[in-house]
Automatic annotation (TrEMBL):
The lineage of its organism: Bacteria, Bacillati, Actinomycetota, Actinomycetes, Micrococcales. The chain crosses the membrane at residues 12-29, 57-82, 159-179. It is a multi-pass membrane protein. Coiled coil: none annotated. This is UPF0114 protein E3O32_03930. It comes from Cryobacterium mannosilyticum. It is found in: Cell membrane. Belongs to the UPF0114 family. NCBIfam families: HI0507. GO terms for cellular component: plasma membrane. HAMAP family: UPF0114. Keywords: Cell membrane, Membrane, Transmembrane, Transmembrane helix.
């Protein structure tokens, strides 16, 4: 009963799949807004021609990247969490199997989620930096808000807190990775003695000397060896062809 209670989490992952579908819709809406911004620049040219605000395009692209990274986070939670806490996903050998799924566990999943959150926070912080890039030029202080190019209101205190929160995310991710590395090192260091197979004694193999040929076989082997040596000397020019033939006749006569 307790073991089967893990299936109570299955509806939670189904809900995350629905959230994934919603983010697909959000992505298409954001992409449509970006297309409208570009189309507006073409249909309403200024005195100097077509005007497309680069900052707005960059913010739109960052918004799309933000949606994609959150969707990736959902995928990791759905697949990795289901694999870790609910049931095995039988896709061994499948060509589309994610590389990280083969060695996923609770610690690895936490580290990957932390890194994904750091990436999402980085995108949000970059968007904030772009939007408030001209606050200093406007003379903004920490107590009065200024409207950015997208219409949002920012203060220096708000930007500072975003930086602080982002640094907290980074420190948390580093701490999780460090803890995971320590646990892996401890797991490798502690090896049960029973898992180490004892060395079996290997039989001693006596090396017997190779018997040398005797009698007629020895004479033939010696004659062939001399002929080969004479042939090399003849090829090198040390022995003439006549001397080689004479010596060959003598050696063949001994066989």
């Amino acid at each position: 009963m307790i073991f089967f209670s893990r299936w109570l989490q299955a509806p939670l992952y189904i809900g995350l799949i629905v959230a994934q579908v919603i983010y697909v819709v959000v992505f298409m809406v954001e992409l449509g807004h970006l297309g409208e911004e570009v189309l507006h620049g073409f249909t309403h040219p200024g005195p100097d021609g077509i005007v497309i605000e680069e900052a707005k395009i960059m913010l739109g692209v960052l918004g799309l990247i933000d949606v994609v990274m959150i969707a990736n986070l959902l995928i990791m939670v759905i697949i990795g969490g289901y694999e870790t806490f609910v049931s095995k996903i039988r896709i061994d050998g499948h060509p589309d199997q994610p590389e990280w799924l083969s060695h996923v566990n609770a610690n690895v999943l936490k580290v990957k989620l932390a890194m994904a959150i750091v990436g999402i926070s980085s995108i949000h912080l970059l968007k904030t930096f772009i939007e408030v890039g001209d606050l200093a030029a406007r003379g903004s202080t920490s107590t009065e808000g200024q409207e950015s190019i997208t219409g949002d209101v920012y203060t220096w205190d708000g930007v500072l807190w975003q930086v602080v929160i982002h640094m907290v995310f980074i420190v948390s991710a580093i701490a999780l990775a460090w803890i995971d590395r320590i646990s892996q090192a401890a797991g490798h260091a502690v090896t049960p003695a029973a898992s180490v197979a004892p060395l079996e004694p290997q039989p001693l193999v006596s090396v017997l000397p190779v018997p040398r040929p005797t009698g007629t076989a020895a004479i033939e082997a010696g004659a062939v060896g001399h002929l080969l040596q004479l042939g090399r000397l003849r090829d090198a020019g040390v022995v003439s062809a006549a001397e080689f033939e004479l010596k060959k006749t003598e050696l063949l006569a001994r066989i």
